[in-house]
């Protein structure tokens, strides 16, 4: 029986087939089992001999079967390893990394510019109290200046901030002047019920600036804004201040920068005026200081508020503000810092 099957088993190539032959030879209905069952009919001295022989054949067969089984299993593993080999020398798939949004780049640049001049960078809540957005900024209820900023109200007292100026009030309130002057900028998102068009968005960015100390003059304001405009728009720029009105500054100004395209001669970018309006500013109104418990006879300062969206449009010649908010990668990847 062993000799008959030994060669056959060694040539089997599938685990299923091997299992079938194992059941045939060693199973309950197999020849060895039936020999062992027939032992009871044998004589006492035949019984141990036949028994020992049957056991020997059974052990030999099962050894051959087990050996073949592990060979076949190993072959399956080898086959798998071969087909699943990773070629580590192949070049990888390129991973496209994102890049900071162009407006974030403009704001980062302004932040490092002002940090270099000793300003702190502070951020505040976008859901703001009427108290900080308007009242503390010298705009009481029913003041006509509220119409200058169409506002999204949430409740009577809560609103989506319409400017970053409430951060002036929040910082002044907390500042300890025995520790030194207050110098801060506050970048962030603001909201207005403006109809979206090429130059207006209902959600856009602002960056507030505020300096409070003794003996701050309008010359400090002008020097600071000139340095900033030259940093952003080029070293040859000049600025001019035009009288304006904001409830929280007195006097108030609109700031124009000399056109970076034509140098002030007149071109389509500056609508042939030579000047481009870039931000609002002024000397902090005494009422705003008093509302924050600051002695307006001793301390004073300047504030400004600029729009990074408009800065980016000017700097890169972008003619539609909506390009910043429509997530078109063909537009956004032009400003990739990796080039
Ligand atoms: C203000 O919001 C004042 N808080 C600025 C200020 C601060 C003045 C401190 C004095 C002292 P204004 O409403 O002009 O001012 O807005 C400031 C800037 O925000 C504008 O110059 C413009 O760049 C930008 N801006 C205003 N409305 C929109 C809009 N709908 N979409 C995009 N940018 C806007």
Number of strands: 9
Q: Provide the low-confidence segments as ranges.
A: none
Tell me the major beta sheet: 7 strands, mixed
End-to-end gap: 79 Å
Give the strand content.
15-25%
**Helix/sheet category:** alpha+beta
Number of helices: 11
Largest sheet, spatial ordering of strands: 1-4-5-9-8-7-6
Ligand list:
adenosine-5'-[phenylalaninyl-phosphate]
What is the helical fraction, as a range of percent? Answer: 25-40%
Order of helices and strands: HHHHHEEHEHEEHEEEHEHH
Mass-distribution shape: elongated
- Rg over alpha carbons: 42 Å
Please, could you describe this protein's structure?
The chain is of the alpha+beta class and 339 residues long. Helix content is 38%, strand content 19%. It has 11 helices and 9 strands. Strand 6 and strand 7 form a beta hairpin. Helix 5 packs across helix 10. The chain is elongated. The relative contact order is 0.10. The site of adenosine-5'-[phenylalaninyl-phosphate] (FA5) has 23 residues, from strand 5, strand 8, strand 9 and helix 10.
Keywords:
339 residues, alpha+beta, seven-stranded mixed beta sheet, two-stranded antiparallel sheet, elongated, binds adenosine-5'-[phenylalaninyl-phosphate]
């Amino acid at each position: 029986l062993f000799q008959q099957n030994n060669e056959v088993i060694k040539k089997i190539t599938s685990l299923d087939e091997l299992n079938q032959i194992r059941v045939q030879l060693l199973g309950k209905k197999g020849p060895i089992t039936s020999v062992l069952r027939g032992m009871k009919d044998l004589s006492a001295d035949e019984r141990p001999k036949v028994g020992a022989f049957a056991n020997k054949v059974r052990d030999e067969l099962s050894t051959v079967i087990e050996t073949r089984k592990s060979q076949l299993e190993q072959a399956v593993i080898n086959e798998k390893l071969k087909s699943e080999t990773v070629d580590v020398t192949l070049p990888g798939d390129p991973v496209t990394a994102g890049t900071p949004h162009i407006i974030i780049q403009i704001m980062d640049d302004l932040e490092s510019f002002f940090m270099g001049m000793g300003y702190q960078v502070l951020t505040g809540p976008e859901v703001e109290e009427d108290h900080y957005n308007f009242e503390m900024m010298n705009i009481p209820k029913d003041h006509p200046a509220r119409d200058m900023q169409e506002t999204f109200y949430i409740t009577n007292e809560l609103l989506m901030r319409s400017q970053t100026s409430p951060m002036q009030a929040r910082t002044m309130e907390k500042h300890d002047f025995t520790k030194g002057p207050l110098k801060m900028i506050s970048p962030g998102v603001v909201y207005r019920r403006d109809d979206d068009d090429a130059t207006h968005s209902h959600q856009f960015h602002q960056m507030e600036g505020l300096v409070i100390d003794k003996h701050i003059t309008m010359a400090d304001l002008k020097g600071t804004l000139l340095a900033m405009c030259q940093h952003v728009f080029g070293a040859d720029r000049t600025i001019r201040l035009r009288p304006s009105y904001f409830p929280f500054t007195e006097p108030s100004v609109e700031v124009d920068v000399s056109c970076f395209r034509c140098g002030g001669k007149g071109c389509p970018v500056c609508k042939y005026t030579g000047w481009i309006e870039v931000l609002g500013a002024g000397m902090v109104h005494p009422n705003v200081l008093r509302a924050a418990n600051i002695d307006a006879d001793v301390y004073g300062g300047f504030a400004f508020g600029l729009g990074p969206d408009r800065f980016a449009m000017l700097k890169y010649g972008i003619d539609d503000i909506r390009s910043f908010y429509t997530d078109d990668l063909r537009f956004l990847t032009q400003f990739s810092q990796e080039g």
